[in-house]
Input
Amino acid sequence: MAKQADNIRKYYKFSVLIFALFLQGCSSTGGLRIGNSLTLCCPGNYNDYVEYRVEVENLPLFLRGYVVSAFDTAFEELGLERNDQTSDLVVTLAYQHVNLNAEQQNINPFIRPETITEELSYLAVINITMRETATGMEVWEGTISRMHNVTPGEYMHEDRASTAFLNTFRDLLSDYPRRD
Output
């Protein structure tokens, strides 16, 4: 029964994500846009949280530096401090890659042989989960995502992407209770 409830929760989260992407795409006015969705907020005792640590799962190496940096900046603006030794919260940034073309399921967009000449379409998703260090209880969860259509020879625009990540994390965390 718990597994079925977990599957329903994952389906619901994915459906909300796709709907948010659709709405974001309809309202986009250009520039690099990253959609976001808050999926769990505020069952914890937020006044007790002072320090956090970050864990990453499946986040491509070239993204780690500026994704984690953007998250740190946005979260520290809310009054928390990063401490990877002792912390009240564990923040997990988990990357998920969803190919949108069934024929491209085995193609890694980050390692592309020159023999592949087709455009790749995929959804890049980062799930952000916060758990209390002491209890393991989830106290906050959200998702950021962006749909990509990548042609051969394209590369990541890191300056624009790092700014977009920071703005997206700020937006996603806007309802997170600020520390006094």
